[in-house]
Structure formats: structure tokens, C-alpha cells
Design goal:
The chain has 3 helices and no strands. By secondary structure, it is mainly α. Helix 1 runs antiparallel to helix 3.
């Protein structure tokens, strides 16, 4: 996968997470926090490697 493809995938994943209904947020708060933390770290590392 190209760098642009990975960036698009990361942005799309972030948008999907932001669009989740509140009920999903409440039921899976800890899991979603972990996913968001990992996503944020991946985005930071990608920025540092440019």
C-alpha cells in the first residue's frame, strides 16, 4: 500500500470512529479509547517520518 493510501485509510478510520453513535461510544468506551490512542500514535509517527 502506498503512503498516500495509508494516509487515506487512517483519515477514513478516524472519521468512522468520530461518526459512531453515542450508544456505541458508551458500550465500548475503553476499547474505542485504545483504538483512538493507537491511531493517534500512528499518525504522529507517520508525520515524524516525512
Amino acid at each position: 500500500m502506498s503512503k498516500a493510501g495509508v494516509d487515506e485509510w487512517l483519515v477514513t478510520l478516524n472519521a468512522v470512529l468520530d461518526a459512531l453513535p453515542d450508544t456505541v461510544e458508551q458500550q465500548h468506551a475503553e476499547r474505542l479509547k485504545i483504538i483512538r490512542d493507537i491511531l493517534g500514535l500512528v499518525m504522529v509517527v507517520r508525520q515524524l517520518h516525512r
